Amino acid sequence: MPDITQLLLSLPAVLWAITFHEFCHGYVAYRLGDPTPRLRGRLTLNPLAHLDPIGALMLLLFRFGWAKPVPIDTRYFRKPKRDLVLVSLAGAGGNLATAILCGLVVRLVPYPFVNNYALGLFIQLMILINIGLAVFNLLPIPPLDGSKLLYVFLPGRWLQGFFWLERYGMFVLMALLALGVLPALMSPIVIFLYRLIL
Fold first, then answer.
1. Alpha helices in 43-116 (DSSP H)
2. pLDDT, tens digit (0-9, with 9 covering 90-100), for 166-191
3. Each residue of 82-140: pLDDT tens digit?
4. Is 7 within 8 Å of 13 (Cβ atoms)?
5. d(CA 82, CA 36)
6. Rg (CA), the chain
7. Would you please indicate which residues are annotated as catalytic (active-site) residues?
8. I need a surface site. Which of 96, 106, 121, 144 has the fewest CB within 10 A?
9. How far apart are CA 135 and CA 39, in angstroms?
10. Could you list the residue range(s) of the whole structural domain that residue 16 is in?
């Protein structure tokens, strides 16, 4: 659990991370021919359009969370399998791009972040939260983005079992989080990427 300072500084980082994540999904789907995100008002950087209160609270407190999924319609895609992969990767790509950009800012202009505790902590949280959200969403567990990649690449005979798992995916995620499995899986990857960026 973060302390009160971390909690307050995490708020804008969380709002940006989930908003940009979902915006990237919608933007890539729109560029690939699907008007659904635009028609549903999801091509915006307004956090209120993307916010899932429980998912945001989880991200704020435990560094694992989610937003309202951007609706897409794969019937508009010219190459549905390829385009679904691109849309699925777009959210995590946006988060990693944010983390890398923040890291570049710190490397190029370190003085303000080294000499100001709040600013230094904020930029660290921006990097960590965006990396964490990217890694979390790429896990191959429904309804996360990583599961959409498996839909494309799994043999047809395995898909029925995977569709069954999709109905209970959120419960599986909560159980893995409560048992400490998710932090154990994700922490080495998050720490490696954090050190690489900074």
1. 53-62, 80-108, 111-115
2. 777 778 887 888 888 888 989 999 99
3. 999 999 999 999 999 999 999 999 999 998 888 998 899 999 999 999 999 999 999 98
4. no
5. 18
6. 17
7. 22
8. 121
9. 29
10. 4-197
